[in-house]
Design a protein that fits this description.
With 248 residues, the chain is of the alpha+beta class. The chain is built from nine helices and eleven strands. The chain starts with a helix and ends with a strand.
Length: 248
């Protein structure tokens, strides 16, 4: 439950206090502080925040008494509010994005053509953005150690759209999955290029992903928005593709 409450925006102290109230019932601030391990100096500020969010109610007695509200009502109401905000954002955001796209940025001579994105969420997001942008070709050098559902969902759709997708597997880990993808029509070959993860789309843009060998989710993506560099990587891919063997 702690994970879910954190996803709903509650802080560590708020989660501790709320769960303690659910378990113990109505409590004074002093008693709640001791049972929840929320510092005495933080407990009242924490409780007022929970009150504002609708998670608790309190009696304005001396001392004040705090009580957890019904979690079904509280959580459902918060989720409903979150959905309403997201729905409102969904309707207004496209217009804002279009207005933003109309603004022509000043291009300085020092503008970088290489951007670095740290962390698994950012790294995967950059890869998926590259795949989504592909119009004609996608050349991928991939270890197959981590198989993300979203990756192959996008690639299946791009293949249906007519994008020519070539994949070089640098390891034969998850060989069963590789064979399943080949049966689906993906053009996959094997060549042992050590720890190399490169994605090139339309010979115009590319991504190189660097992964911590001790933690495959600890990764950094280097986005290369240079046609010349991306074409060079594409030529490198072609050279390896010719030497790679068909997987049987």
């Amino acid at each position: 439950m702690e994970k879910e409450l954190k996803e709903l925006g509650l802080s560590e102290y708020e989660i501790k206090a709320y769960l303690t109230l659910n378990r113990e019932g109505t409590l004074t601030g002093n008693k709640l502080s001791k049972l929840s391990n929320v510092p005495q100096g933080k407990i009242y500020n924490t409780m007022y925040k929970l009150y504002d969010k609708g998670f608790i109610s309190y009696m304005d007695s001396k001392p004040k008494l705090f009580k957890a509200n019904d979690p079904n009502i509280t959580v459902n109401r918060l989720i409903k509010k979150r959905k309403e905000r997201l729905k409102k954002l969904e309707s207004s955001l496209p217009k804002s994005i279009e207005e933003l796209k109309k603004i022509k940025p000043k291009i300085a001579k020092t503008d970088e053509k290489v951007s670095i994105f740290y962390g698994k969420n950012n790294a995967f997001a950059v890869e998926w953005h590259l795949f989504e942008s592909a119009k004609t070709t996608l050349d991928i050098i991939f270890t197959f150690e981590v198989i993300k559902h979203e990756t192959w969902r996008i690639l299946r759709r791009k293949k249906k759209e007519g994008v020519d997708i070539r994949v070089i597997a640098t390891k034969l880990i998850n060989k069963k999955k590789i064979k399943e993808l080949i049966k689906e029509g993906f053009n996959i070959r094997y060549y042992p290029v050590e720890e190399l993860r490169i994605y090139v789309r339309d010979e115009e843009e590319s991504v190189q992903t660097i992964v911590n060998p001790n933690n495959l989710m600890d990764r950094t993506a280097v986005l290369i928005q240079s046609k010349e560099l991306s074409q060079a990587l594409n030529h490198y891919f072609d050279a390896i593709w010719k030497k790679a063997r068909i997987i049987k």
